[in-house]
TrEMBL record:
Keywords: Monooxygenase, Oxidoreductase. It holds the Pfam family Bac_luciferase. Residues 21-262 form the Luciferase-like domain. One of its GO terms (molecular function) is oxidoreductase activity, acting on paired donors, with incorporation or reduction of molecular oxygen. Gene3D superfamilies: Luciferase-like domain. This is Alkanesulfonate monooxygenase SsuD/methylene tetrahydromethanopterin reductase-like flavin-dependent oxidoreductase (Luciferase family). The keyword Oxidoreductase applies. GO terms for cellular component: cytosol. The keyword Transmembrane helix does not apply. InterPro entries: Bact_Lucif_Oxidored (IPR050766), Luciferase-like_dom (IPR011251), Luciferase-like_sf (IPR036661).
């Protein structure tokens, strides 16, 4: 079954995953009161999501915050406990990363999961601390912005995960070397095609297309053109695909969008999210510029189907990431994902 987003773009049956920000707080009403809670529950939720028929488990990365921060141990653990779903990030802040060490971690996590890693990276979001990347010993070069530094780290990371040798071997190695220059190990074949760029604007989406990265677009865009959020995001996706084609990349790109979606099925659903029925797009300020924030979708399944069918960006994407309220616990979020997979997705042709 296929869903046609527009005349020249055929979008396959949707992959549906969850995106967890991994919040934790020492409060009696939170199901995640410690870093240990959120890490262990993230693994359990990934297992439950696979059992519920979802297709992906994605995790947000924030430094200096009571949230998930070090993704690769978590991704490896999820990969070891699951067998089918994609595992990924949305997104890793490349200002903080050592590209070669990250390549080793990513290769290991991908091999443990059997090639299911879908790694979302980007320049990152507003920080909890001032120039936190400097505490990680990363400093922009002279004349370079922090965004430039993130792209420089990205370029190096993309280079070294291709598997090409680049390091001169020692004439007196501890262990025998294969012939030629050496590469970062472990190397995981195919990982380069499973790197996504989290783009916050139309221009950064075009850049991602030229670089041959998949597009990951969230519930906010760092610009406002006066049109509804989903229309602006759909334009962003079309520009990305146009840039991809113009660059002449051999394989087909993937596109994901994130949404907050809550089917109101049980009394608990209504208690938590009934008031979100009236949610609308919002325009605000982010890092000194205007930004557009997408609305929350909350309604009974039949009404959700009607509303989601009108979302142009969802129609353009092949992957939909559901932002989950992780502090409500594994059982509730497994119920949420099951409701979307069983009560909403089939009516939209996503299953």
């Amino acid at each position: 079954m296929e869903c046609r987003a527009r005349e020249d773009v055929v979008v396959p049956v949707k992959r549906i995953g969850f995106l967890s920000f991994g919040h934790w707080t020492p409060h009696p009403q939170s199901a995640t009161r410690s870093a240990s809670d959120v890490l262990l529950q993230s693994i359990d939720l990934a297992v439950a999501a696979e059992e519920a028929g979802a297709d992906g488990a994605y995790f947000r990365v924030h430094h200096f915050a009571r949230q998930l921060a070090s993704p690769f141990p978590l991704l490896a653990a999820v990969g070891a406990r699951t067998s089918r779903i994609e595992i990924g990030t949305g997104v890793i802040d490349m200002r903080y990363e050592n590209p070669l060490y990250m390549a080793e971690d990513a290769g290991a996590a991908d091999l443990i999961s059997g090639g299911r890693l879908q790694l979302g990276i980007s320049r990152g979001s507003p920080e909890q601390v001032i120039e936190g990347y400097r505490h990680f010993a990363h400093h922009p070069a002279e004349g370079e912005s922090d965004a430039d530094m993130a792209r420089r780290h990205t370029a190096r990371f993309l280079e070294v995960i291709t598997g090409e040798g680049f390091a001169e071997p020692s004439p007196r190695p501890m262990f025998p070397n294969p012939p030629g220059l050496l590469r970062v190990e472990p190397y995981s074949e195919g990982l380069r095609e499973r790197i996504w760029w989290g783009a916050g604007s139309r221009a950064t989406a075009e850049w991602a297309g030229t670089q041959g990265m998949n597009l990951m677009s969230s519930t906010l865009l760092t610009e406002d053109t006066g049109v509804p959020f989903h229309e602006l995001q759909a334009e962003q996706i079309r520009r990305f695909r146009d840039a991809w084609r113009a660059a002449g990349h051999a394989h087909e790109p993937r596109v994901s969008v994130s949404r907050s979606i809550f089917p109101l099925v049980t009394a608990e659903d209504h208690a938590y999210f009934g008031l979100e029925r009236r949610s609308t797009d919002q325009v605000g300020m982010l890092e000194g510029g205007r930004a557009t924030f997408g609305k929350t979708y909350a309604a009974e399944p039949d009404e959700l189907v009607r509303r989601l069918a009108q979302d142009e960006a969802i129609a353009e994407a092949d992957t939909l990431l559901i932002t989950v309220p992780n502090q409500l616990g594994v059982d509730y979020n497994a119920h949420l994902l099951r409701s979307i997979v069983e009560d909403v997705a089939p009516a939209l042709g996503w299953r």
